[in-house]
Amino acid sequence: MIHIETFVFNPFAENTYLLHDDTGEAVIIDPGCYDKQELAEITDYIEANGLKPVQIINTHAHIDHVLGITALKRKYQIPFSLHALDEPLLKAVQSYASNYGFASFDEPEIDTYLAEGDTVHFGNSSLKVIFVPGHAPGHIAFVNEDQRFVIGGDVLFHMSIGRTDLPGGDHNQLLSSIRSKLFTLPDDYTVYPGHMQLTTIGFEKKNNPFF
């Protein structure tokens, strides 16, 4: 069984997810931890529960989702994976990080690329990769069919959707991604978003004002 822990980090109130199963192996998704206190929050949890992180995977590469990657890569000596189309966004972070009050950004090396149809494995568990661009050119999401959830990043929120006014954003493409990739999932799937509270596919199909 996959256990999902949520950490809310940095001034953007970004949701970082730590997924682990009964083997103790774990994946870290979208680590937004920036300062020492935030980094300690997630590493203390990992150590207190005897977990073994095996990979960092990101839905996309906007600044609020990538701040903790390098520190966690170094601490646990684990690879980092991202969709290839979001590599330019990752490389751009260094140039604007100070504008958002982040004095330094240590750009992580991408070890492998993820694409739709790939599967991320940890312990006895797996996540299926789906491609959901619009908020970012290389935005992906992670689906688990056994426990009926999706780690959706900044695509679909409770009663809202991701912004599309940032470089590479495309409003119509985002709406298409949601309709064709997320709203085709069963209504009872839980959506773990990049910000704010959890929601479900069924609730958003019925109530989201963008649809």
TrEMBL record:
Coiled-coil stretches noted in the UniProt entry, renumbered to this chain: none
Domain of life: Bacteria
Keywords: Hydrolase, Metal-binding, Zinc
GO molecular function terms attached to this record: hydrolase activity; metal ion binding
InterPro entries, sorted: MBL_Glyoxalase_II, Metallo-B-lactamas, RibonucZ/Hydroxyglut_hydro
SMART domains on file: Lactamase_B
Pfam families for the chain: Lactamase_B
UniProt key word Nuclease: no
Cofactor(s) this protein requires: Zn(2+)
Sequence ranges assigned to domain Metallo-beta-lactamase in this UniProt record: 13-195
Protein name in UniProt: MBL fold metallo-hydrolase
Native organism: Dyadobacter sediminis
